[in-house]
Amino acid sequence: MGHNLLQGKKGIIFGALDEKSIAWRTALKCHEAGAQLVLTNAPVALRMGEINELAQAVNAPVIGADVTNMDDLKNLFESSVAHFGGKIDFILHSIGMSINVRKGKSYTELDYGFNQKTLDISAMSLHRVLRTAWDLDALNEWGSVVALSYIAAQRVFPHYSEMADAKALLESVTRSFGYHYGIKKKVRVNTISQSPTRTTAGSGVKGFDGFINYAEKMSPLGNASSDDCANYCVSLFSDLTRMVTMQNLFHDGGFSFMGVTQEVLNDMEK
Question: How far is CA 41 from CA 14, 69, 102, 126, 196, in A?
């Protein structure tokens, strides 16, 4: 049930690859809540994914953009404003890629060239997106930008590797740009630290099934699903959260504040 929380609002969704992705589920929930959308992803991802199916479901155009290319982002925002006939109300940044993880390199043997690309795509891309919107004055006052993070930005998960550094940088960009955008336009910028979720991208992390199973046992409410996260995004895009900004918001069933659960203790004592 959409509750029309986003009726009349216009947003850009970055990163919908396939129906497993949080961005895909969020686009569906935003559409259900009454929003108009533009979908975007990197050109290579558009060729690999099934985004046209989503575009038809939510009645949205697809505009390709490389998030490391400022000209691409300028075209995306200008085309989106033209499509909507006005400024944008919300943005979802659901972007992450680690070449070192793909190549199976451990954290102690990073290729620094790969690492630079990881940080640029997974974290500094948010700065580029915000900078482009800022320069073009493309966001309405009281707009909302949400980026997806993970608790590895604060705690060690050995096989999450350089993506932990990328998420930490992502959260820092959120706070710093959130300050400036709040002062200028009352735009709020937040990250959601989501439970480990079975997406196409997440499944590439070594030991990912272990991440999910452990988090399930450590979370009083269990792991949050992609649809749960999508609903949370809708609430952050809505006017009900106008005073929430510069926050890293844990959406993980309570995992982030647990020391240990009885279920984990029982397993350890077997």
Answer: 6, 12, 19, 13, 22
pLDDT tens readout for residues 228-261: 999 999 999 999 999 999 999 999 999 999 999 9
Q: Where are the domains of the chain?
A: 10-268
Tell me the angle at which helices 125-136 and 162-185 cross, rounded to the nearest 10 degrees. Answer: 20
Question: What percent of the chain has pLDDT above 90?
Answer: 86
Structure tokens at 115: 């690492």
- Report, in angstroms and rounded to the nearest whole number, the Rg of the chain calculated over CA atoms: 18
Query: What is the C-alpha separation between 166 and 161, in angstroms, rounded?
Result: 9
Q: What is the pLDDT of residue 63?
A: 97
Q: What is the DSSP letter of 8?
A: T
Which residues form the catalytic set?
A: 150, 160
Closest CA to 156 of 171, 168, 148: 168
Let me know if domain 10-268 sits in CATH 3.30.420.300: no
Encoded tokens for 102: 């793909």
Other residues' Cβ atoms within 10 Å of the Cβ of residue 64: 17
Q: Supply the pTM of this predicted model.
A: 0.95
Q: What is the pLDDT of residues 184-200, one digit of tens each?
A: 999 999 999 999 988 76
With H, G, I as helix, E, B as strand and everything else as coil, classify residue 140. Answer: strand
